[in-house]
Amino acid sequence: DAGVIQSPRHEVTEMGQEVTLRCKPISGHDYLFWYRQTMMRGLELLIYFNNNVPIDDSGMPEDRFSAKMPNASFSTLKIQPSEPRDSAVYFCASSLEGELAGSNEQFFGPGTRLTVL
Amino acid sequence: QKEVEQNSGPLSVPEGAIASLNCTYSDRVSQSFFWYRQYSGKSPELIMSIYSNGDKEDGRFTAQLNKASQYVSLLIRDSQPSDSATYLCAVKGTGTSYGKLTFGQGTILTVHP
To answer: pLDDT tens-digit profile of B47-102?
Structure first.
């Protein structure tokens, strides 16, 4: 398996522009997580899905942020309009939970480094 | 009080020494605990998980859990320069938060030759 795939790996945009980050979880995993990491705030959970359904979006900073998971193999995180304070590394992670899951490990993608000028 | 707190660091140890990383958590009913390692510019990777009180050893790594004290630690024996990284403690949610991991702020470890 290729692991969790994220695109793009780097994104530089100007304030006010729309940004879309993409994630393909590990095949068969039933949980998908979006995190944001900054030096100041560390690793923060933004939203997570179980079987494509959003479970908890309390970490989404404001209405400018939205996330979707239209099917089990794809998710997007959209920021519209983007602001300089959104600059961070955004990670997607996936896991398989339940009795048959073994370690319940969350596997992280390589991340998208977003810079908003 | 933060849900998961780690000793702030940074922590610097000489090569060959034991590095000790500590973590406390606030949710008494938590059952699953994880240590992730993150190299600079990379994504977090799982190095240890622990679910029962006591010690769990894996090579040079030992995780320790004390649920009564709400305390998790990670010991790295015979530290190597390649162990230099940020170590993240994570606690899995229960009930309506099942599946969710809450991370501490991380401890930066430097192992110097």
So the answer is: 999 999 999 999 999 999 999 999 999 999 999 999 999 999 999 988 778 778 89
Q: Which residue of B has its CA nearest to A111?
A: B43
Question: CA–CA separation, B20 vs B101, rounded Å?
Answer: 22
Residue B23 pairs in a beta bridge with B6, B72
Interface test with A, best of B43, B46, B86, B97 (most A CBs within 10 A): B43
Tokens of A94: 């996936």
Distance from CA of B100 to the nearest CA of A (A): 8
Interface of chain A toward chain B, CB-CB under 8 angstroms:
31, 33, 42-43, 45, 48, 50, 55-56, 91, 95, 97, 103-111
Residue in this structure with the two tokens 């998790």, named with its chain if needed:
B72
Average pLDDT by consecutive 10-residue portion of chain A (117 residues)?
A: 92 97 95 94 93 93 94 97 97 82 79 97
Alpha carbon distance B25, A35 (integer Å): 20
- How far apart are alpha carbons A77 and B44 in whole angstroms? 20
- Report the residue of chain B nearest A29, measured CA to CA: B99
Instruction: State how far the Cα of A75 lies from the Cα of A112, in Å rounded to an integer.
Output: 14
Token couple for A14: 């100007």
